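Q: Here's a chain of 136 amino acids. Please give me its 3D structure as tokens.
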Amino acid sequence: MGTVDRAIEDKAIEDKDWQRLDKWLWCARFMKARTDCARLVGGGLVRINRQPTEKPHARLRIGDVLTVPLRGDVRVVRVLALAARRGPSEEARGLYEDVQGEVALPCAATESSAYRRLSMSAGIAVASPRPFGSRR
């Protein structure tokens, strides 16, 4: 019974002080499916406070700065609130603020073949400016 009580206690603490990274990304509407968020994080493409993480269950707290590569751009956001649920887009936008402004800047790292290979292995489609492989 001790492990069950501890799991319930961890869940109660999660709602107050921290939240799983993949769950927060999903609630903040960075991707459509939570499994896609988990794959993105699992590929080592997301950073929390400049530290790369490969753990979808990484603890995210208010004030943390996330670096998230999406669709050929890199977004840097500061966490303003933890999500209670996946709500409408207006509610999701209140969870974070863009640190680098409204427009995400293109990054040379997202154009590299290593980034493309990592994102493809994570099951995330990356738009490429040129066709490659079987798409030619």
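Q: Can you summarize the key feature?
A: The chain has a mean pLDDT of 79.
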